[in-house]
Amino acid sequence: MRCYLVCYDISDPKRLRRVLRVMKGYGRHWQLSVFFCVLKSLDRVRMQRDLEAEMNQKEDQAVIVDLGPDEEQARQAITVIGPSLPPMQKSVTVI
After folding, report:
1. Do 16 and 55 touch, CB atoms closer than 8 A?
2. Is the overall model pTM greater than 0.90, yes or no?
3. Is residue 84 included in any domain, yes or no?
4. Which residues contact 58 (CB under 8 A, 6 or more apart)?
5. Which residue range is the domain that position 41 belongs to?
6. Which of 3, 20, 56, 69 has its CA 20 to 30 A from that of 43?
């Protein structure tokens, strides 16, 4: 699992809603067009594929920043001015 910060700028409101819906399936909504995602390699590839399918790559832009494998360390690498980030989500492992 790795942590990613995903930011996007979508020029069409209809595509923006579709991209937002895609991203809600992969991560936590931090700001208007910013998501924090903790993903397996395969899910990272799927997320990019799903984004590319919804975007117009001549008009829209998405940036995926790899923050590394440790969520706590990734959060510490981020500087926040204003209200703090949402708390870490504790994941549950079922064996």
Report:
1. no
2. no
3. no
4. none
5. 2-76
6. 56
* Residue 66 vs residues 4, 15, 36: alpha-carbon distances, Å: 5, 24, 10
Cα–Cα distance for residue pair 62/30, rounded to 1 Å: 15
What DSSP designation does 84 have? P
Confirm if 85 and 72 have CB atoms less than 8 A apart.
no
Task: Reduce the secondary structure of 9-57 to three states and give it as a string.
Answer: ECCCHHHHHHHHHHHHCCCEEEECCEEEEEECHHHHHHHHHHHHHHCCC
Number of domains in the chain: 1
In a domain, 87, yes or no: no
What tens-digit pLDDT sequence spans the chain (95 residues)?
999 999 999 999 999 999 999 999 999 999 999 999 999 999 999 999 999 999 999 999 999 999 999 888 888 888 888 888 777 766 544 55
Tell me, what's the pLDDT at 87?
78
